[in-house]
């Protein structure tokens, strides 16, 4: 069964509808990215799936006993609160030193447990958040704009880490993003959201969908150029095979050439 | 006022005997610190300084109502402080502009209280003790109230510690971990009301927030973890209470403000040490 699913999910804040009739399901082991402009309801969708926001209508179903590792969008550790990386890993469930050090090593932060969180770089901070999320041995990782504020190498490194985690643990990954290039490469499935689901499917399929182009119009000429020359209807339905992936990288090189 | 009696014994050694009231005052200050150390840390982390002020000022109104109705002062302050804390907490959850709302409520509560208290005959002369505390007049009964309240607050915070820290760091993170941030906020709100009622006798309504914020801010400069900061704030608060009492004895200064003065001195010292250590 699906790890987590939504049926005709509606979320209203006051008079405005943040989500209207969203249905989706996340299967074990897949990497799904929700893509959409600012204010399109991406974070609200994640928060509704997590149970933080109550749906106004529709339903969210989580597999019984589902272990979720969550990385919120913004976590500003106020300088008023002293907090080492090691201490953070024990919130809210205490972990032993060995487990903490292993979690830090897993995300490339070995030996940094004594560092104050406010002294970590943006990339280190996000890796620490991921390390904490991994401690519960999650079946699904939910990440809200995990690479916001990272430079391009940091971003690429983070997505590589996500793929490694998926490979090693088999955890599904559901993340939100508005940066297109890397996401397209790192996802099995992309969902375009603008209060409702505009289109969804394998990255290449979505990128050629008219709804996607309408949504991302001008800002994404690069991403569109990336896929235009491999656009091919006969391949639309064979989602995430290696062939597709090769095309993508080919396109990427072409774009930067 | 003579606080210490110097006795010269036949062997020529000099011992200093502390009077009972001074021992009670010292114990009251230490007891209060057990609650204000950890709670004050949360006040600093969550930027609730003004919230603390509003709740503390409401205590004056509580005193007036208690005197009018014949209830014990502790009950009156606790009830009004709780009502104020819950009101402010509810408004905050509804997204009111807190700086303005708290500014209105903190000063309105103080003004209402002062007006109300002027209707109670014979209290005007005691007003200063409600505003600035009367730690040297702490009775054994007061002491039991102070230690009971402080133990309640400290116990509550220790019990909810992990959940409170997680919710303070990020509410969504707490929620995703199966915690309820609203419940943790309520824990802090209740704790604040109890501390206000307990601290009234020690430092008075006007300086309760100072005892929450200053020791915690001083400990921040020296601490690397939340636990170290809470423990440090407790120690600094207790030391400030003792030093303030000493200052009060020595120079005959008002005790409550002397304690806060000592805490402020500790803050300056800790900030300097923190800066030196980088």
What would your notes on this structure say?
The complex is a heterodimer of chains A (257) and B (278). Chain A has ten helices and nine strands. Chain A has helices at residues 42-50, 85-89, 97-106, 122-134, 152-169, 180-186, 203-207, 210-216, 221-228, 242-256, and strands at 4-13, 16-26, 31-35, 57-62, 68-71, 140-144, 172-177, 189-194, 196-201. In chain A, strands 5-6-7-3-8-9 form a six-stranded mixed β-sheet, sandwiched between helices. A three-stranded antiparallel β-sheet of chain A has the order 2-1-4, with helices on one face. In chain A, helix 9 packs across helix 10. Mean pLDDT of chain A is 81; it is low at 218-257. With 278 residues, chain B is mainly alpha-helical. Chain B has a single domain, classed as ABC transporter involved in vitamin B12 uptake, BtuC (Orthogonal Bundle). Chain B contains twelve helices and two strands, in the order ββαααααααααααα. A two-stranded antiparallel ribbon of chain B has the order 1-2. The A-B interface holds A 47, 50-52, 68, 70, 72, 75, 77-78, 80-84, 87-88, 90-94, 114, 116, 142 and B 44-45, 47, 162-163, 165-166, 168-170, 172-177, 179, 220, 223-226, 228-229.
């Amino acid at each position: 069964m699906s790890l987590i699913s939504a049926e005709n999910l509606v979320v209203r804040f006051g008079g405005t509808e943040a989500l209207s009739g969203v249905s989706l399901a996340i299967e074990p082991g897949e990497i799904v990215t929700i893509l959409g402009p600012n204010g399109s309801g991406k974070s609200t969708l994640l928060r509704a799936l997590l149970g933080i926001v109550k749906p106004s209508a529709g339903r969210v179903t989580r597999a019984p006993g589902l272990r979720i590792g969550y990385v919120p969008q913004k976590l500003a550790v106020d300088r008023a609160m002293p907090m080492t990386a090691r201490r953070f890993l024990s919130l809210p469930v205490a972990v032993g030193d060995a487990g903490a050090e292993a979690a830090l090593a897993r995300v490339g932060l070995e030996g940094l447990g004594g560092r104050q969180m406010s002294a970590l770089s943006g990339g280190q901070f996000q890796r620490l958040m991921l390390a904490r999320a991994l401690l519960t041995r999650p079946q699904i990782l939910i990440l809200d704009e995990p690479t916001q504020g990272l430079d391009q190498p940091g971003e690429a490194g983070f997505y590589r880490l996500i793929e490694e985690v998926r490979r090693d643990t088999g955890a599904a990954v559901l993340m939100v993003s508005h940066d297109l290039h890397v996401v397209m490469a790192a996802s099995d499935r992309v969902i375009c959201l603008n209060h409702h689901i505009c289109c969804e499917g394998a990255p290449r399929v979505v990128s050629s969908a008219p709804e996607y182009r309408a949504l991302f119009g001008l800002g994404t000429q690069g991403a569109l150029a990336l896929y235009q020359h491999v656009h091919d209807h006969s391949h639309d339905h064979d989602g995430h095979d290696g062939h597709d992936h090769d095309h993508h990288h080919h396109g990427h090189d072409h774009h930067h050439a | 006022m003579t606080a210490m009696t110097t006795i010269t014994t036949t062997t020529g050694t000099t011992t200093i005997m502390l009077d009972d009231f001074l021992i009670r005052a010292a114990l009251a200050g230490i007891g209060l610190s057990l609650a204000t150390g950890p709670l004050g840390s949360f006040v600093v982390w969550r930027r609730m300084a003004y919230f603390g002020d509003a709740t503390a000022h409401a205590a004056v109104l509580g005193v007036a109502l208690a005197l009018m109705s014949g209830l014990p002062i502790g009950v009156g302050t606790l009830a009004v402080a709780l009502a104020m804390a819950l009101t402010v907490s509810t408004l905050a959850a509804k997204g009111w502009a807190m700086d303005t709302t708290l500014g209105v409520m903190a000063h309105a509560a103080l003004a209402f209280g002062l007006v109300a208290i002027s209707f109670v005959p014979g209290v005007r002369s005691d007003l200063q003790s409600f505003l600035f505390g009367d730690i040297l007049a702490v009775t054994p009964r007061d002491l039991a109230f102070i230690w009971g309240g402080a133990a309640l607050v400290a116990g509550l915070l220790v019990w909810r510690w992990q959940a409170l820290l997680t919710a303070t760091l990020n509410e969504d993170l707490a929620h995703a971990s199966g915690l309820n941030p609203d419940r943790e906020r309520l824990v802090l709100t209740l704790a604040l009301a109890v501390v206000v009622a307990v601290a009234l006798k020690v430092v008075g309504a006007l300086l309760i927030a100072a005892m929450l914020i200053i020791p915690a801010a001083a400990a921040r400069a020296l601490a690397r973890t939340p636990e170290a900061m809470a423990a440090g704030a407790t120690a600094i608060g207790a030391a400030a209470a003792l030093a303030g009492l000493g200052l009060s004895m020595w120079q005959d200064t008002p005790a409550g403000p002397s304690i806060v003065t000592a805490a402020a001195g500790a803050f300056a010292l800790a900030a300097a040490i923190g800066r030196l250590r980088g």
